[in-house]
TrEMBL record:
Membrane-spanning residues: 40-60, 66-82, 112-131, 138-159, 192-210, 217-235, 269-289, 301-324, 344-373, 394-419, 466-486
BP GO terms, sorted: transmembrane transport
Domain STAS: 455-546
Protein name: SulP family inorganic anion transporter
One cellular-component annotation, GO: membrane
Keyword Nucleus (UniProt): no
Membrane topology according to the record: Multi-pass membrane protein
InterPro entries: SLC26A/SulP_dom (IPR011547), SLC26A/SulP_fam (IPR001902), STAS_dom (IPR002645), STAS_dom_sf (IPR036513)
Location(s), subcellular: Membrane
UniProtKB keywords: Membrane, Transmembrane, Transmembrane helix
Length: 583
């Protein structure tokens, strides 16, 4: 496909094209038995990874393991069927553990399910309003910082089960309150739980190094369950804490809905929608980078929204795109969304056939799984490189990281994004420059290097003419500094030429700065000529009243100087406004 030419406008996709699920796309391309075979193998591989993770994440979030599986089954199926990514795998995610646990503690399970339902409606609305593109503008130090902060909180939440501690009271949520309680419970540590947790971590990490294609998490969890059952270990298991997993699916039911309850859980729902959109789109971008494909971000958010609504109706928790499982899906050779749909079907088969076996799974083993997950969540090379980089990036990273741990995820994202935006504005303002009176003569070159040179124009040295060249993005961050330079025009000057040929964009603040300059110059009897303006820049300047006779427009500085010598340049001479096709 060739790039559009100036005479061939680019195709603008229709609403239907923007929101066509990738499942429809691959079916249109042609879907055969070889594709189904590849998707079935990938789906089974992902299901093996998702099985222990879904239960572990749900338990860490304050929900039951069955709710984690329902989330992966219903939510995962719809994310793949309706989403805008070929390879996205949906389900419960470790990034949500902190928010979900806090919501359960504050509003109960009914409040969590209602918040999940509302967040699904929000995600669908964000997608339909085509706001998905803007969500991807999250600064990189913010994503690295809050991911690392979440990893720390997840690990801290698993210390009790990793060590098999018996606490005198409920375990606090905030880290600073949690640590003293865990410390006081250290004498109650259970050697069997510690051994199972260490064995789980050892098996997962060992198989990843020696047999990377083996399902390390499932082997570790199944092995620990077998040891627990064979030796009758007195440790807490899914059976002793939750009574096992139901061998069937629940009927869909609406959560209790009232205006008061909606108002209470609305902040949690907004947090779910914000984090879910960021997490899912990051996962889709990772899949694109691995495959060379392109996802439809707004369609993906609509699919995520429908999946969260469905998950809440069946008693599940928050659904989002999961980076690790999506990457596993790609590496396993998936062809398209059918792999994600089959992964949900395989999890359903597990519930229907092998649910009684889950009762023997020790919580210490699932805590070991999450300990490995939290370690892998930390982007260690990225964290280190950002710390070694600029002080601004390091400040954004550390601020987001510490706020995530000690304050809250929502506050961390908002403040981190704000700091990242301020840092970007500062950097953009520093590369916007203004210079004055550069001669129109090239640098001297060595003998033998014959270079075409423009003739020196004596008007450039005219003390009554001042020339300013602005380079870079001229916006509110740079308007004050540039405005202060432009204001220093002496009354002895009769003409001011401002060259915009190196300005790709200006905003209303910059246009207002030039307008103020033009009026001030007019009061002093100084003519203002603007050169090198593109059509877009002129439109913005026209909108702020910068039209002849207040200012004149010329193609280049040379043209403006030439007309000055003839006496027909400047605002009073009509300005010579350049048309679009002349630029």
């Amino acid at each position: 496909m060739t790039a559009p030419t100036p005479h061939q406008p680019s195709h603008q996709p229709s609403f239907a094209e923007l929101f066509t699920p990738k499942l429809v796309t691959i079916l249109r391309e042609g879907y055969g038995l070889s594709h189904l075979r590849a998707d079935a193998i990938a789906g089974l591989t992902v299901a093996i990874v998702a099985l222990p993770l879904s239960m572990a994440i749900a338990i860490a979030s304050g929900a039951s393991p069955a709710q984690g599986l329902y989330t992966a089954i219903f939510g995962g199926f719809l994310v793949s069927a309706l989403g805008g990514s070929r390879f996205q795998i949906g389900g419960p995610a470790g990034a949500f553990i902190v928010l979900v646990a806090a919501t359960v503690q504050a509003h109960g399970m009914d409040g969590l399910i209602l918040a999940t339902l509302l967040s699904g409606l929000m995600l669908a609305a964000i997608g339909l309003l085509q706001l998905g593109t803007y969500i991807k503008f999250m600064p990189y130090p913010v994503t690295v910082g809050f991911t690392a902060g979440i990893a720390v909180i997840i690990f801290a939440s698993q210390i009790k089960d990793l060590l098999g501690l018996t606490l005198a009271g409920p375990e606090p949520g905030p880290l600073l309150e949690k640590l003293p309680v865990l410390w006081s419970g250290l004498p109650t540590a259970d050697p069997a739980s510690v051994g199972l947790a260490l064995a789980t971590v050892g098996v997962i990490t060992g198989l990843k190094a020696l047999r990377p294609h083996w399902p390390g998490m499932l082997i570790a969890v199944a092995g620990s369950a077998a040891i627990t059952a064979a030796f009758g270990l007195n440790v807490e298991t899914i059976g002793t804490k939750f009574g096992g997993i139901p061998s069937g699916l629940p009927m869909p039911t609406l959560p209790a809905i009232s205006l008061e309850k909606i108002q209470a859980v609305l902040p949690s729902a907004i947090s779910f929608a914000l984090l879910g959109s960021i997490e899912s789109l990051l996962s889709a971008v990772v899949a694109d980078g691995m495959t060379g494909r392109r996802h439809r971000s707004n369609c993906e958010l609509v699919g995520q929204g429908v999946a969260n609504v469905a998950s809440s109706l069946f008693g599940g928790i928050c659904v989002t795109g999961t980076i690790a499982r999506t990457a596993t899906n790609v590496r396993a050779g998936a062809h398209g969304p059918v792999a994600g749909m089959l992964h949900a079907v395989f999890l359903l088969v597990f519930i229907l056939v092998a649910a009684p076996l889950a009762s023997f799974i020790p919580l210490a083993s699932l805590a070991g799984v999450l300990a490995v997950v939290s370690w892998n969540m930390v982007e260690k090379p990225a964290f280190a490189s950002l710390l070694r980089g600029s002080r601004g990036d390091a400040a954004v990273l550390l601020t987001t990281f510490l706020l995530t741990i000690f304050t809250g995820l929502t506050e961390a994202i908002v403040i981190g994004f704000a700091l990242g935006s301020v840092l970007f504005i500062h950097r953009m303002s520093t590369i916007t420059a203004i210079e004055s009176q550069t001669p129109f003569v090239a640098e001297d070159s060595a003998d033998g290097a014959i270079v075409a040179r423009k003739p020196y124009d004596q008007a450039a040295a005219d003390p009554e003419v001042v020339i300013y060249r602005i380079s870079g993005v001229f916006f509110f961050g740079a308007a004050a500094s540039i405005g202060s330079v432009l204001d220093r025009i002496s009354d002895t000057h009769r003409v001011l030429i401002v060259d915009f040929s190196a300005v790709p964009f200006l905003d209303s603040t910059a246009a207002n700065t030039i307008e103020g300059l033009a009026h001030k110059a007019a009061r002093r009897g100084v003519k203002v000529i603007l050169t090198g303006t593109s059509h877009t820049l002129r439109q913005e300047l026209f909108n702020h009243g910068l039209k002849p006779p207040l200012v004149g427009y010329e193609r280049t500085i040379e043209v403006g100087l030439h007309k000055l010598r003839r006496g027909d340049a400047g605002p009073n001479a009509g300005g010579g406004v350049v048309q679009q096709d002349a630029v």
